[in-house]
Structure formats: C-alpha cells, structure tokens
Amino acid sequence: MPGYNTHRFFNYVVFIAVAILLYLWNLPAIDINLKNILALTVGFYIGTDFITPDLDIESTAIKRWGKLKILWLPYKWLFKHGQSSHNIVYGAIVRVLYISLILLGVYYLLFKSLPSGAITPSMYVLIFLIGITIANALHVLLDMLF
C-alpha cells in the first residue's frame, strides 16, 4: 500500500489537474464561485490530510491529530484496516458522521443545546462533504492500484 505522502501527492495532483480541466472547459452547468470552490477545497484538504481511511491504524494521519487522536480510538476498535474504512462508498461518510457526533456531543455538553443549523446543513457544508468524499475515493483508488 502507498504511504501517507504518496496518497497526499496523488490526491493533490489529481485535484489540481481536474480543477485546471474544469477551468479550461468552462462548463456552464457547474456553479463556479469563490465560496463553492473554497468549501470544496477545504473539504478535500481535510479529507486528504485529517479524515483519511488510515485513521484505523497508527498512521501519519492519526498522528496529525496530536492529543486529539484519542477521539479516534473507538473508531480504530470498530473498524479493521483496509476493510470497511476503505470502502469507496461509505468509508468517508462513516468517519464524518463519527466525528460529527462527537463534535455535536461536545457542543451540547458545553451549551446545553444544538447549533441552530445542525439539522439542515447549508449547501456549503454539502460541498465540503463532497470534497472529503472525493479525497477518500482517491485514497481508496490508489490503494486498489498498488
């Protein structure tokens, strides 16, 4: 399996190449504005560097969390490496739901209520999640190739 830096390099090269192609093709069906691009890019970055399929092992990705890596300990116990965590369809979804539940739980404990937009995410949150999912898919595809 490729290492952490190989995954990062692959993901960013593909992301930049696709961005350049979309810019050159100037597709009218794609709503290209700064907020959408920013949401997708941040989601892709988070998905590539922090919420990767390799959070179920002692990897560079888990070490990037620093002391907060303890949040991923139950996740490591639940998922075996290379199996469901590396599923191209629901791997990223499970990780995002997992960390979202923890963040909402902490928020609730601090403020005794949930944030007003917690139930219905904005379009930017959905685009952000698409960025994470794309990064996850590229990680899994690279693992399948090698």
- What structural category do the secondary elements indicate? mainly alpha
Globally, the shape reads: flat
The oligomeric status of these chains comes to single chain
Q: Identify low-pLDDT runs.
A: none
Total DSSP helices: 6
The fraction of residues assigned to DSSP E strands is under 5%
Question: How would the blueprint of this fold be written?
Answer:
Layout: H1 4-25, H2 34-49, H3 60-63, H4 73-78, H5 91-111, H6 123-145
Helix pairs in contact: 1-6, 2-6, 5-6
Structure description:
There is one protein chain. This protein is mainly α and 146 residues long. The chain has one domain. The chain is built from six helices and no strands. The protein has helices at residues 4-25, 34-49, 60-63, 73-78, 91-111, 123-145. The longest helix is centred in the last third of the chain and has 23 residues, at 123-145.
